[in-house]
Amino acid sequence: MTTGGRSGLGWTWWGLGALLKLAFAGTAVLLPLAGVWIASSLAAHHDGPLWASLVAGALCFPLLPLGWDLFASWRRRRRGETRPRVLTGFDRLVLRTLAINLVFVGGLLAGFPGSVYEALSTRGDWMLQGSDASWATSARSSLFSTAERMRWLHEATHENAYEELIDPSLTKTDTPVQTPQPGRSRRQAPVRTTEKAVSPSDLLSDEGWPFAPTLHPAVSELPAEVETSFDSVARYLADREPDPVQRVKALHDYVADRVAYDAPALAAGHFPPQDAETVFERRTAVCAGYATLLKAMADVAEVEMVVVVGDARDGDGYFAGRGHAWNAVALGGQWYLLDATWDAGHVDGTTFKKSYGAGYFLTPPEVFVATHMPDDPKWQLLAEPLSPGDFLRQPHLQPEFAALDLELVNPRRARHSVRAGESLELRFANPHHFRLSGVVRAEGDPGGLRCETDDERENLTCRFPEAGRRRVSLFGPEGVYLGRLYVDVG
Asked: What is d(CA 149, CA 334) in angstroms, rounded to the nearest whole number?
């Protein structure tokens, strides 16, 4: 059967050809847009010139494809070719656009494999300029959903150097990992009172988070003759502490207090064995060794614990974080998080500065996830786990921030854009009216410009007189560091 001189099969092939041509044309439009989006987000992320990415986009479409086609036509005329072309002008333009932009996008992915996902997830909405309009919110959601599809690139280039130092069996458990109901915190004990705290120490407790930074008495008074092996120490601490929470704290405190971070190994990138026996004998370790020793001592003390691997954001400004390892412990049928490495002190170059703390001991999961992102989402211990993109976008806040009952009401993102001469207002829920302060600094600047605070201590106004990337460091009473935000000043 034919219709108008064309058979049914002919119409089918014609329809398929039209659909294929339409698909190629659509791709020829979307691919240049994707290239501009990636290039401009990388420029915004690395404080580079946005105009360069826009110029590159204009070259990729339509200037270079049109120039290519004009040059090819000029060569045909010069050679005297008269044979009709197989492809139409439209088809040639589409194919040349695809070829040029595949090279452009491929070059961006190959040249910045570790930064593309991070840039798209944190600065992929730069063109919306922080707008809260409904259309901007929808567009932002679509952009970040698209960015999440690029996570494979981050995972392919972002290796955890510590994971191979850990026996995989230490990361597994047969006990179900239960998560709380949405909106419910997992604090170990209700330590808050209805009265306003006068000092941050008024909010600390020996029974629940936030714990006072005081070593467990059994650790402080541990006889030297007991420290012959980690088995001996673990049995000693378990025998002297019947309370499950305090028993775990004693184990955590021993590891955090007695093991020094192996800063030279971190700087060199070469790590000695991190098994429990070696760490106990050397009394130095990287995070893998801290977590492994604590897990081994918990086994001796008959406490269920696992090692958790993932990324953690430290004070160096890495949005995606670096490879890290910490622990999760089961208490009373629930799982809790702890990080003895970060409670031991901090690294300054090739030097470890000991400073015991308890901010990362049984920390509520919604607080812990501000700095720690496990590879397995279940170890976030959240009813609704954050995506890696959500993790990158959230403000960089320390547990001390939540320990003061503070909440950052606005802004809710780690990175922001303002114009030179403008200011950014930070709004807090500060029920105890603690004194808050902020300092605006350029990278590498030891000084800075102080933010202004109001009488209610619920607002900080930070000014940005000059263009460039700035870091807003937040501090609480007694100069306690609380976290940071980043501002790109144009």
From this structure: 33
Tens of pLDDT, residue by residue over 48-88, are 888 999 999 999 989 999 999 999 999 988 988 888 888 88
Q: At residue 332, what is the residue type?
A: G
Please tell me the pTM assigned to this model: 0.88
- In 3-state terms the chain splits into helix, strand, coil percentages (rounded to 5) of 45, 20, 35
Calpha distance 457→423 (Å, rounded): 17
* Residue 469 phi, psi dihedral angles, 5° rounding: -85, 135
Measured in residues, the chain has a length of: 490
Let me know: does 323 contact 363? Beta carbons within 8 Å: no
d(CA 29, CA 231): 65
Q: How far is CA 232 from the centre of its chain?
A: 38
Q: What is the mean pLDDT of the chain?
A: 89
SS (H, E, C) 200-257: HHHHCECCCCCECCCCCHHHHCCCHHHCCCHHHHHHHHHHHCCCHHHHHHHHHHHHHH
> Is the confidence at residue 3, as pLDDT, over 80?
no
- In angstroms, the CA 242 to CA 251 distance is 13
Q: Locate 55 and state its tokens.
A: 């110029």
- Distance spanning both ends of the chain, measured CA to CA: 67
Count CA atoms within 13 Å of residue 99 on its CB side.
11
